[in-house]
Every structure is written in C-alpha cells, then in structure tokens.
Fold this protein.
Amino acid sequence: MIAAVLPTYARAPVAFVRGVGVRAYAEDGTEYLDFGAGVAVNSCGHAHPHLIAALTEQANKIWHTSNLYQMPGQVKLAERLIEHTFANTVFFCNSGTEATELAIKMARKHFAALGQPEKFHIITFEGAFHGRTLAALAAGGQQKYLDGFGPKAPGFDQVAFGDHAALEAAIGPHTAAIYIEPVQGEGGIRSVPPQCLRGLRALCDKHDLLLMFDEIQCGIGRTGKLFAHEWAGITPDIMAIAKGLGGGFPLGAVLATEKAASGMVAGTHGSTFGGNPLATAVGNAVLDVVLADGFLENVNRQALNLKQGLARLKDLYPNVIEDIRGEGLMMGIKTKVLNSDFVKAALGQHILVIGAGDNVVRLLPPLIVNDADVTEALHKLEAAAATFEKN
C-alpha cells in the first residue's frame, strides 16, 4: 500500500519537533547540530526571535490578499533588494524552481519583444540543478531527474563545467542567455572561479546575450557576501534567488535589470501566493539580520575556521576524505567512502549534513554559527570519519 505522503523521498529515520539557533531536537529530545539548515534555507537558524516577531506581528494583521492588490511589505522588500544589488525590478514567488521558471521566461520574452523570437535557447552547465519542474529539469540536464517524464523540454544547450571552448562553440543564432550557479550546490559544491564569471559577463556582452545567475542556494550571505557573484565584481542581467531569503518561510524571487525585464508586462506572468504579506514580512526580517553591521564579517570568519578545520580532517583521514571544496559557509567534503554512508555516520554523531553530486557531503550551517558551533561540528565530523577507519 502506498504511503499517505507520496514516497518520493528517502527520508532519514528521525523527525524534528523543535529547533533553537543552530540546534534541532528530535521527538525523543535528542539534540542535533544542524549543519544542513534545511538545505541552506534556515539562514538565521531555528526560532530566530526577530523572524518570529515579524511573522507573528504580520499574522495578527492580514495573511493573504493576492497580487490583485497593492502589498506594502512586498514593495519594501523589493526596494531593499534593489538597493543592495544590480537589479531594477523584482518578482516574488514561492520557491527556487519557480524563480528559475520566470528567469527562463524572462530571457525568452526579452528577445521576443525585440522581434527575435528565434532566440530562446539557454546555455547551461553539466552538474547544474535548477529545480524540479519540466523546464528547470531540462535546464539542469541531469538524466536521473529527467527519466520517465517524457521528452526533454527544448531550448537548453548544456556544456561541460569549465569547458570554455565548448561554451563558445555552443553560442549560435538561437542563443538568448547563459544560466549558471556561481557555486553549484546539488552538483557537488563546485565553485566557478571569479575570472570565469568575469569571462561569462564579457562573452554575453560580446554576443548580446543575457547573463543569468542561479543564486538560489549560494545567495543571501551564504558565501560571505550578500550574493556570491559579488566576489567577481560583475553583475548578471537576471538572477533567481530563494531558500535563505525566507529563512524557512517559502519565498523566492527573480531580480532583473530594466532592460532584461522589458518584455514582462501586465499579464505575462503571475503567482497567487508569491510575495504575500506573511512571506515578505519574514523576508524583510531576514534582510534585517543579514545586512546588519558585522554579520557577513562573522560569516567569513566562521567560514575560515570551518575550512581550516576541514583541511585538518582531510590530513588526518586521507582514506576517508579526498578533497575539501566550497566558499563561505557552503562547504563540501568529497569522500572516498559513499557520501550517503558518511551522512549516516554524521547523523549517528548527532550532526546534520547533506549529500550532493560528485560523492560530496554538503555543510550548509545557519549563518549565525559561532566559534563554539564550528568547533563542535568539527569534532562530530571527525568522529564520523573515524568510524570508517575502524571498519
């Protein structure tokens, strides 16, 4: 008999009923150090008092009105995102997948509005993950996610990660945009070097293409700047964000320049729930926290502590750990054992980590971690690694 909840997840045998800061508590009261943050979602940790206050205050006013009416909280959040980024305009949705869908539509509509509807192809990269809808799956191009869902949606040309010659060769008369994660998450915490991001910007300018970034996982302070592409000193034309923006409340967005969004007029896109009063109240509270003086400096400090500690573990356990990779508090451990086995071993040490492609274990702690949290995490990860040395 099929389960009451559609069995599309291989869930760990633990249920969490409470969380505080960087810690989550199971039904039996067992404490876990959360270095997964709900897949980079709980940017401010669990039960952050400022987020609780913002959500509670809004819940006592009005929950939902739809985008048929003005929403002051939505305008406030959009204006703040514009103030701190390249963007001139913002559309709010509920998830990263929805943000990807609009990014794709926006790029295609941009050229259609210019009288070039034949320019609808988007170049993406091997190992990418952009979401679970049919277009997002086609953009990601991973066969394991595409199998069984019919023909792949057309208009996506995928090239190997880091293959500059293949990238240039893929550009043709039908190409509209390049879409890339500055740091691949699901693909195995693979970073695009700053010089390569600068090269993509130059390439798009040369060929009159739109540069689109997927910062759904690596944005909102995760790499030590508000957005990962800032390390390269360039800007995209369109950017999809989500996850950490809502701090645990479903919230996504697409940020764009006026030029890139010029084809998106009334009636071309919509969302019933997107950017509703509850979601944007929490989104504004998240920005209050992340943009506060000293917050990102602490992210960078803890990232350095974590990276140095992981390098030590690699030296101590060369038969278990092959490589350490990542940026900021978006780190990956490439293991010589099955990454799923390492995730289970970590769970046994009461630390939550997440598997990724390329046999990598992701570390995505809440951005509020402190010295003691990082030290504890390293001890638990060392204990997990040690279990393989004994076997």
